[in-house]
Structures are given as C-alpha cells and as structure tokens.
Design brief:
This protein has 145 residues and is mostly helical. 57% of the residues lie in helices and 0% in strands. The chain is elongated, with a radius of gyration of 20 Å. The protein contains 6 helices and no strands.
Length: 145
C-alpha cells in the first residue's frame, strides 16, 4: 500500500510539496529525478515563451530612428538580432530577471532561435522530452559576445 501511495505521489506531485528523500525506493528516486528534469525542461520552454511574449509587447514603433539625435549607438544600439523589438527591451528584461544585459540578451536570442529556427526543439522542450542543456546546444549561437 505504501509503495502505491509513493508511486501516486511521484506521478501527481503537488506544486511546492516534496516527498522526504529517505522515503522512496532507489527506483522511485530515479523516477522522481526524471520527472524533475522533464519539469525543468517544460519550465525553460515556458520561460522562453514569456520572454517572447514580453518582446512582442515591446515593438520598436516608438524608438527613435537610427539617424535621430536621441537614438542609441555603439554598444547601446538596438539589438539587430531582435528585429522589430524596442531598443529598451533587453535592459527591461534584465531588470525583470535581476540579471545583466548580456544574460538577458542571451536568453532573448535563444528564445527567438527556438521560435524562428527550432520549433520542434521548442515543442520537445515544452513536453519535457528534451532537456534544456541539449536544447541550448541545438539553438544557433547568433548573439554577439
């Protein structure tokens, strides 16, 4: 009976609730680790979707044109890798995530690569069939260092 309850708990975990690690058998721990990896992959795909949604909500229609005195230049220039997205998007994303602009740009570029170039990879990530490290390797490295 206890084994069935543990199997049920692992198959249908409740958010924020975890089993004590000493309770499950070795096989159940392995199954739980696999479930956690699939959940992490699904969350990574959801994060990419949220980033793209935020980017879609920040069109470049109000940005000053490149020849305008108020336009950003040099390292602060609009991100050519995110066409149609406001020049203020990456700094905004960095603030939202509490990270640097480079990290935010990297995440935005990878999310865009999933959507534009690798929809099957993104779907596999969302389904938990492909882990995030493998999906990242497949995403083209189109961002600038």
């Amino acid at each position: 009976m206890e084994g069935l309850l543990l199997d049920w708990s692992i198959a249908r975990p409740r958010p924020g609730r975890r089993l004590p690690v000493g309770l499950p058998s070795r096989e159940q721990k392995a199954a739980e680790l696999q479930r956690v990896q699939a959940e992490k992959a699904s969350i990574a795909a959801y994060e990419a979707e949220l980033v793209l949604g935020l980017a879609d909500d920040a069109p470049d229609t109000l940005d000053p044109p490149p020849d305008h005195p108020g336009a950003r230049r040099g390292s602060r220039a609009p991100d050519a890798e995110l066409p149609g997205v406001s020049e203020f998007f990456v700094p905004e994303l960095a603030v939202v995530l509490g990270c640097g602009r480079g990290t935010a740009a990297h995440l935005a570029h990878r999310a865009r690569a999933y959507r534009e170039n690798l929809p099957a990879t993104w779907a596999a990530l969302a389904a938990g069939d492909l882990d995030e490290p493998r999906a990242r390797v497949l995403a083209p490295r189109t961002w600038r260092a």
